[in-house]
Amino acid sequence: TKRTKVSELLQSTEFDREVLVKGWVRTKRGNKHVNFIAVNDGSTIKNIQVVADPNQISEDTLRLVTTGASISVTGKLVASQGAGQNMEIQASQLEVLGTADPEKYPLQPKKHSFEFLREIAHLRPRTSTFSAVYRMRHAMSFAVHQFFNQKGFVYMHTPIVTGSDAEGAGEMFRVTTLDAKNPPLTEDGSVDFSEDFFGKETNLTVSGQLEGELGALALGDIYTFGPTFRAENSNTTRHLAEFWMIEPEMAFYELSDNMDLAEEFLKYLAKYALDNCADDLEFLENRLLDEEKNKPATERSPMTLREKLQFVVENDFERVSYTDAVEILRNSKPNKKKKFQFPVEGWGTDLQSEHERYLVEKHFNKPVILFDYPKDIKAFYMRMNDDDKTVGAMDILFPGIGEIVGGSQREERLDVLRARMAEMHIPEEEMDWYLDTRRFGSVPHSGFGLGFERLMIFVTGLGNIRDVIPFPRTPGNAMY
Ligand code: ATP
Ligand code: MG
Ligand code: MG
Ligand code: MG
């Protein structure tokens, strides 16, 4: 017999036939007459029940069938009367492939805290919660490619090691082959990067945007989807040092087209999760509901996970300019009596996350697209508006998450772009290749970045970005 995956088996309606299943033991219960073994092989959140009769399977073997052990089972697939399952396997042969000493195996059948599981990130895929998250990561990656493929976008690979810094935020990881303790020096005593591997200073990419623009101004619509690195020293539940970003870049787009695309994309992804990840979503939703029970009623979420996804699918996002948002915040009273101390330095400062949360979770109660930000708090490549004070930037803010998308209309006018770079002290000679796109056949274009892990926080309902990526990299933590 050929091995069948549990996901496939559970679709089956053909009973009383021999099957072969391999997987990991979740639980074993029973008595000296019969054993019930729940087996999971990672293909689905669901387990298959194996019934092992001590007359068929030796006591010595059954003793090794403990939580975490891997087994191979041959037997008859039969309809089951048991609650919560419609089939089970009556084992005729059972082999233990790898034992898991119950005294040492950390994942016993009980609910472990996220904090504990973060300490053993190498074993947490064995839990139901994390297998659900990682299967959904796969499903959502696939959905990203499907969305853009259906729209005729070209998937473009931008460099991981690069000499450019798109954001200018000084959050780059240096890549070098020089001896860090004893680097070659130039005559004036600074590090001589001409001796480095690439003959210049290089770093891990913080965004594929600048290179993506080159693609858009030739292929029309492109997107990148790859790892991105930021040496963020912020220990938040929303930032990683290594995260994945989806960055579409579109020629002949205005800012409103960009917002339309981003909104359509997020709705598509929410619907994709609802339609294709039903079992995993149901499991995660129940786990979250369990946790909510421990909270005071006022702090409990009024919507379940699936209701939140459905809400995004069905409701248009609110679009508000930065200037209008500032007015709303000025006139609001978040704490009944107290007004926001906002903005301390007047119009032109970046919104704090408490302001963003107020707008999204209290004032509008839905996703919000904020646009036309003050130029001084945004990157050099964003298109200057006619007022000379704001640029065509847009951020999408989600309830419970904050910024999920950041995007903008790109400055396509060579003279304006150069003036802006001079103002921000960005050396032109470093960016000559970029300016070529504006020198030759420049067109209006737009793009945005969606942080894949922020999306995963949304679709899984989990509260910490460290729990939606298999190997989280945060300050001081690069185990594995
Ligand atoms: P934030 O304000 O949350 O720090 P940002 O404005 O610095 O984000 P952008 O440069 O606009 O981020 O990047 C685009 C998107 O990438 C963000 O909207 C967010 O979804 C995601 N992102 C940015 N930084 C991180 C990070 N350190 N970890 C995970 N995702 C991130
Ligand atoms: Mg940031
Ligand atoms: Mg931001
Ligand atoms: Mg941003």
Automatic annotation (TrEMBL):
Catalyzed reactions per annotation: tRNA(Asn) + L-asparagine + ATP = L-asparaginyl-tRNA(Asn) + AMP + diphosphate + H(+)
Listed CDD domains: AsxRS_core, EcAsnRS_like_N
InterPro entries hit by this protein: Aa-tRNA-synt_II, aa-tRNA-synth_II, aa-tRNA-synth_II/BPL/LPL, Asn-tRNA-ligase, Asp/Asn-tRNA-synth_IIb, NA-bd_OB-fold, NA-bd_OB_tRNA
Subcellular location: Cytoplasm
A Pfam family this chain is assigned to: tRNA-synt_2
GO-annotated molecular function: asparagine-tRNA ligase activity; ATP binding; nucleic acid binding
Record GO cellular component, one term: cytoplasm
Class of enzymatic activity (EC top level): ligase
Major place of residence: cytoplasm
A biological process term (GO) from this entry: asparaginyl-tRNA aminoacylation
Gene3D superfamilies reported in the protein's UniProt record: Bira Bifunctional Protein, Domain 2, Nucleic acid-binding proteins
UniProt keyword terms in alphabetical order: Aminoacyl-tRNA synthetase, ATP-binding, Coiled coil, Cytoplasm, Ligase, Nucleotide-binding, Protein biosynthesis
Residue ranges that the Swiss-Prot or TrEMBL entry lists as coiled coil: 274-301
Superkingdom of origin organism: Bacteria
Domain Aminoacyl-transfer RNA synthetases class-II family profile as annotated: residue spans: 134-470
Transmembrane parts of this sequence: none
Entry EC no(s): 6.1.1.22
Family affiliation: Belongs to the class-II aminoacyl-tRNA synthetase family.
HAMAP family: Asn_tRNA_synth (MF_00534)
Subunit and interaction comment: Homodimer.
Protein's UniProt name: Asparagine--tRNA ligase
Source organism of this protein record: Roseivirga pacifica
